[in-house]
Write a structure and sequence with these properties.
7 helices; about 0% strand; mainly alpha; single chain
Length: about 140
């Protein structure tokens, strides 16, 4: 995934469509959502906070005992897309710094992801940073 500073909004919209499409196209949407959440390096509790649900609700969706609603799927795809962008931008920033180059990363870039309240963007930025730290080696290998 290539995120450019000028293309954050386009990348966000593309990722939302890809993530939503991937979940809808599978026979087991909960399992797909679990894999996407785990790939993003976040816990059920962290996702639940972002989705404004209980952890148990996330668990039931991921285990297939409850089917996700269309509203849940939309929100999930938007949150996961924003997290991917944060992680990608952090990896690019770190790779630039390791190469001795200047970085242009700013968490304010997330404001280009439409229709997220400012407090949610703060949560997403913080969670993106935490999840990036957890899976830094994997993400940096992909960016380099």
């Amino acid at each position: 995934m290539a995120v450019t500073l000028s293309g954050v909004e386009e990348t966000f919209e593309r990722l939302v469509r890809e993530i939503g499409g991937e979940v809808v196209a599978t026979r087991e949407p909960g399992r797909c959502m679990r894999r996407l959440r785990e790939d993003a390096g976040i816990t059920q509790e962290e996702l639940a906070r972002l989705m404004k649900l209980r952890r148990e609700s996330i668990s039931r969706i991921e285990n297939g005992s409850v089917n996700p609603t269309l509203d849940y799927l939309r929100r999930f795809a938007r949150v996961m897309a924003a997290l991917k962008i944060v992680r990608e931008l952090l990896a690019r920033e770190e790779a630039s710094l390791l190469a001795g180059q200047r970085s242009d990363f700013s968490p304010r870039l997330l404001r280009l992801c439409p229709n997220f309240p400012v407090e949610e963007l703060g949560q997403i930025s913080e969670l993106g940073f935490k999840s990036y730290q957890r899976t830094k080696k994997k993400v940096l290998r992909r960016v380099r």
